[in-house]
Specification:
The complex is a heterodimer of chains A (about 425) and B (about 170). By secondary structure, chain A is α+β, with helices and mostly antiparallel strands. Chain A has 13 helices and 12 strands. Classes of the chains: A alpha+beta (about 425), B mainly alpha (about 170).
């Protein structure tokens, strides 16, 4: 029977129209939801109550569903370990032999690094607390690459925290709820990660495109990268800590530089969420945005022709006390930076040079003394032992150290030697 | 007279929808075999196509909308992306329903591929505009292939319910 001859054909018309109207209404609703979505902002409040509620439900469900897979994997590993124990033992022994050499190198480097840090008075990064979590669901489509981890706000996880596997960086947390966190992988189309090339220190932005190998955009410098170069997080912007392993550089089929992710070496079942707080989370943004009124710029009429010579005064509680900021004008450079770094210098120089160090331990803004500018004989005698220390102990005008414009009279201090921290790798 | 009996929504909408969502969750398990992850097909695409072919319905677009929102939440993508994409596929199939009537299995499979492709191209364009970056074509192609091989499930659903209501034969 043809459609035209169907006696019930006329009944279709109203239902077809109603279906079309329902389709239009649903399409409008979906478009409105899509347009108002603010996922790309990665703000905690933009994640939304719906997503938080669904993650709370989905995390235990995924955990239960993934359990047979985990058990099977553990069983297979046990059987493999049983049959391949001998060869694995030989391999581990060889690795251990090599690692012992690396351990010695690492200890020497750590010691050297600690010395340099102490000498320079660098503020080292504090250790980052971590939370271990299990991945309970996974999506790896072209438009979304995320994972759900079974640790959430109850364990201190916050949006923005970096996530690592045992091999390297996996991504970062974009949404947190009680008992679950949503991890945006480095391969997601919305992921942008500031990275650097380990060999050249060249910076780039790691941009996900839904594929397994994200690309390196905005590579800077001449010949900044080669095949096989290690890629690390640069820490630029303060979102991620510096030096986390990301992967290895390769040239893609499309001629662009891409990264084979280190975290892809093994299945990502357990992850570590670094409870790292970026600069914007730690700092009081409101106080930072308040622009203090700058002190009046000293004109040529009130500037002395030559900066006053530092006077040889023993450090007293009065002289060591902090001075108002207005006194530290460009015309009277004071070794503020040197004084600020004094405590760490004191820790390293030998006792013979303590007389100099006591002056250096004065707080920033204290007047420089001869003891600081001209080390005594004892300090000079101790110089060969801690030559870098004595270099650092030489007072330099704050303007020179901080990179501010030079005062009218050039500083007698010699040019600042290149420190090991410049261009140093983590 | 049983042929004229109205089709109950839970039979052709509710149960398949539940099955598609369960399959999506199962394929979201973080399982890796020999270094390979599980494929991630768009299971609700089967229903978006089959429902349009079976008959026009007021409930079906909202079912498609709900499944799309679930995909976005479960996969962690932009909320509403898959809802729009699936509704595009559903609308396209619904508008071409009279053309597809009484076509062979392979032709319908081609139509299903066309509907899937239109949904994915729409998603590709939106994501490109949203993230100001070009998504990779290869992962898109893999997901497209993983989705179009699911057509036999759509065919089974069509065979089950196409003749259930004579008004839409």
């Amino acid at each position: 029977m043809s459609l035209r001859d169907n006696p019930l054909g006329e009944l279709k018309v109203p239902l077809t129209w109603a279906a079309a109207i329902a389709l239009v209404v649903a399409a409008i609703a979906a478009t409105a939801i899509l347009v108002t979505d603010r996922r790309e902002t990665f703000k905690a409040e933009a994640y939304g109550a719906t997503r938080r509620a669904s993650d709370t439900v989905l995390a235990p469900v995924g955990d239960v569903l993934a359990a047979p897979g985990r058990w099977t994997g553990a069983g297979v590993d046990t059987i493999r370990d049983y049959f391949f124990a001998g060869s694995e033992n030989r391999q581990l022994k060889a690795e251990l032999k090599e690692m012992r050499q690396w351990r010695d190198v690492a200890i020497a480097l750590r010691d050297e690094n600690d010395r340099y840090r102490t000498i320079l008075g660098l503020k080292t990064d504090p250790p980052i607390p971590m939370v271990a979590a299990r991945i309970v669901s996974d999506s790896h489509g072209p438009f979304a690459d995320t994972r759900l981890a079974n640790a959430g706000s109850e364990r201190g996880v916050k949006a923005g925290n970096p996530v690592m596997s045992e091999n390297g960086l996996v991504g970062r947390v974009i949404g947190v709820t009680d008992g679950a966190s949503r991890v945006l992988l480095l391969t997601d189309i919305a992921s942008r990660t500031p990275v650097m090339i380990d060999r050249t220190n060249a910076r780039a932005i790691l941009t996900g495109d839904g594929g397994p190998n994200p690309r390196l955009d905005y590579l800077r410098g001449r010949d900044p990268i080669r095949e096989g170069d290690r890629v690390l997080t640069s820490g630029d912007g303060g979102v991620l800590p510096r030096g986390l392993p990301v992967g290895t550089a390769v040239k893609g089929l499309d001629g662009r530089w891409r990264v084979v992710l280190a975290s892809d070496r093994a299945a990502i079942d357990f992850v570590r969420i670094l409870l790292f707080q970026d600069f914007t989370q730690v700092v009081n943004v409101k106080a930072l945005n308040e622009m203090p009124t700058p002190p009046p710029t000293p004109g040529p009429g009130i500037l002395p022709a030559t900066p006053p010579e530092p006077t040889a005064k023993p450090p007293t509680s009065e002289s060591a006390g902090p001075k108002p900021s207005a006194t530290s004008s460009p015309a009277t450079p004071k070794p503020a930076a040197t004084a600020a770094r004094a405590p760490s210098i004191t820790a390293k120089i030998p006792p013979a040079a303590k007389s100099a160090s006591t002056v250096l331990s004065a707080p920033a803004g204290a007047k420089p003394s001869v003891a600081a500018s001209k080390p005594p004989a004892a300090a000079k005698a101790a110089a060969p032992k801690a030559s870098t220390s004595s270099d650092a102990a030489k007072p330099k005008p704050a303007a020179v150290q901080l990179g501010a414009p030079s005062p009218a009279k050039p500083s007698p201090a010699k040019p600042r030697p290149k420190t090991p921290a410049e261009g140093a790798q983590p | 007279m049983s042929a004229a009996r109205p089709l109950e929504p839970w039979r052709w909408l509710g149960v398949p929808m539940l099955q598609a969502l369960v399959a999506t969750v199962l394929f979201g398990i973080p399982l890796r075999l020999y270094g390979l992850q599980l494929p991630q097909p768009v299971f609700p695409m089967v229903l978006a196509f089959a429902w349009a072919v079976i008959r026009p319905s007021i409930l079906a677009p909202f079912g498609v909308l709900a499944m799309g929102l679930f995909l976005d939440i479960f996969w962690g993508g932009p909320l509403g992306l898959w809802a729009v994409c699936l509704l595009i596929a559903y609308g396209g199939a619904l508008s071409a329903r009279s053309i597809m009537a009484s076509q062979g299995r392979l032709i319908l499979w081609a139509w299903y591929g066309l509907a899937t492709a239109s949904a994915m191209v729409a998603g590709y364009l939106f994501v490109m505009l949203d993230s100001k970056s070009t998504p990779g074509v290869i992962p898109l192609a893999w997901q497209f292939l993983a989705t179009i091989v699911l057509y036999p499930f759509a065919q089974r659903l069509i065979d089950l319910f196409e003749d259930a209501d004579v008004r839409f034969r």
